[in-house]
Amino acid sequence: MNFPDTLFSPPLLWAATCLMVLLLSLAAWRVPWRTLPSGAVSAWAAACVLLAAMWLVKAGLQPGLSFHLLGAAIFTLLMGPELALLALALVLLLQVAAGQLGWLALGLNFCVTLLPAVAVTALALRLAQRYLPAHLFVYVFVNAFLAGGLSLIVAAASGMALLWLQGVYDWPYLLDNALPFYFLLSWSEAFTSGLVLSIMVVYRPQWVRSFDDARYLVR
Q1: Cα–Cα distance measured from residue 92 to residue 84, given in angstroms and rounded to the nearest whole number
Q2: What is the mean pLDDT of the chain?
Q3: Are 66 and 57 within 8 A, CB to CB?
Q4: Inter-residue contact 89 to 24 (CB < 8 Å)
Q5: Which residues cross the membrane (predicted)?
Q6: What's this model's pTM, rounded to 2 decimal places?
């Protein structure tokens, strides 16, 4: 989704911006900057640019209803939730620089779509580590594929709820004209997340912060 700032009141936009700044400050404080591998940081920076380019390839029905891959699950599994939030905020800033997003809408887009997607992925990882076997298939299928698709659905549902509560669109219109497309897109999100993480854990497992060879491979 891409919420233009013209659809919402200034108090809501500013409240979301303040919340975003607070959350990003907490995330930056919790990131172990000194222990981050230099090679991984370079790769993650390149991933931000690539994701920003991918977000430019989108389709849309009406203002506030756009369809594109989210990438939040991939970033969360690669970087951890705190750094993923910072990286996704950077991607949003790149959208502003490209003229695809108003700067007043930064906080709302962050809080309503990206934050829920990262939270769902991080929660799914924690539950899988606690209740499911430590197996490579579980990591790829549950944490990357299923959580990737679910993260987009949750983000879309959160955005649709906001549009409905703010009176931008009627709920029946959203259910009939937006939700089916998000369900279809969630499969692409799931497939992309699963494919990317499968490749990464095979060729560059040291770049995947949520993956541990001793846990998933050593028996």
Answers
A1: 12
A2: 90
A3: no
A4: yes
A5: 12-31, 37-57, 69-97, 103-125, 137-161, 181-203
A6: 0.93
